[in-house]
């Protein structure tokens, strides 16, 4: 029986990708790329299946623009766009269920303090007992360092703990830390052999795992 969840942020707790895609489009347009050449759906899939970094690499090469400038412009636009993101439906009730069952929720994100700010904005921060953001300067997923840090700090039982995320690298990180893994795949985009459980919404999260 799973008791504790370590949550990814982008695309797992909060539906941030639409706003990240908008920011990416604005960054491309800042580099004089016409909006008619920008395919939001393709950008979204690149980010979801792979990463923002891979999207930066792919589109800077495609359009022959400076990779570092595209990244800096993207970060500039993203900061404001992501402030509009909201948690996925069902997140709050599942966070509460973990607490009610005597477990703990923890956050593991590559995002900075903005993640904590958004959790607080939607009255979700109080459900968490531990946090890792980019400010901790731990090794990025799929390296297990950040997961191990939370496990040790919060004294979590690995056999009763799961990493929940929306990408394959979250599953690999969980495997590397010897915890269970839950793939949240709302749009059926991710193919994985590394997840112990796959869910497509939060309706029955705590009854299906």
Shape: elongated
Largest sheet, spatial ordering of strands = 3-2-1-4-5-6
Order of helices and strands: EHHHHHEHEHEHEEH
The number of E-state strands comes to 6
What characterizes the major β-sheet?
A: 6 strands, parallel
Helix content: 40-55%
Query: If helices are DSSP runs of H or I spanning 4 or more residues, what is the number of helices?
Result: 9
Structural class: alpha/beta
Low-confidence stretches: none
Radius of gyration (Å)? 17 Å
Q: Roughly what is the average pLDDT, rounded to an integer?
A: 94
Alpha carbon gap, first and last residue: 8 Å
The proportion of strand residues reads 5-15%
Characterise the protein shown here:
This protein is α/β, with parallel strands linked by helices and 209 residues long. Helix content is 44%, strand content 12%. It is built from 9 helices and 6 strands; from the N terminus they run βαααααβαβαβαββα. It has helices at residues 17-30, 40-49, 52-63, 67-81, 91-100, 114-121, 145-154, 168-176, 205-208; strands at residues 4-7, 105-108, 128-132, 161-165, 180-184, 197-199. Strands 3-2-1-4-5-6 form a 6-stranded parallel beta sheet. Strand 4 (161-165), helix 8 (168-176) and strand 5 form a beta-alpha-beta unit. Helix 1 packs across helix 4. The longest helix is centred in the middle third of the chain and has 15 residues, at 67-81. The radius of gyration is 17 Å and the shape is elongated. The mean pLDDT is 94.
């Amino acid at each position: 029986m799973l008791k504790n969840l370590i949550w990814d942020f982008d695309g797992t707790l909060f539906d941030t990708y639409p706003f990240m895609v908008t920011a990416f489009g604005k960054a491309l347009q800042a580099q004089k790329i016409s909006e008619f050449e920008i395919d939001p759906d393709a950008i979204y899939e690149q980010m979801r299946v792979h990463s923002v970094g891979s999207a930066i690499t792919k589109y800077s090469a495609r359009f022959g623009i400076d990779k570092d400038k595209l990244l800096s412009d993207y970060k500039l636009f993203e900061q404001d766009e992501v402030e509009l993101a909201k948690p996925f439906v069902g997140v709050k009730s599942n966070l509460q269920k973990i607490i009610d069952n005597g477990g703990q929720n923890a956050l593991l994100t590559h995002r900075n303090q903005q993640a904590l700010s958004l959790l607080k904005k939607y009255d979700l921060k109080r459900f968490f007992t531990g946090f890792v953001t980019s400010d901790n300067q731990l090794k990025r997923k799929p390296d297990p360092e950040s997961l191990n840090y939370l496990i040790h700090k919060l004294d979590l039982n690995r056999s009763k703990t799961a990493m929940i995320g929306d990408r394959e690298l979250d599953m690999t990180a969980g495997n590397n830390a010897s915890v269970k893994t839950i793939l949240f795949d709302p749009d059926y985009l991710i193919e994985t052999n590394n997840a112990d459980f796959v869910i497509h919404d939060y309706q029955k999260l705590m009854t299906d795992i």
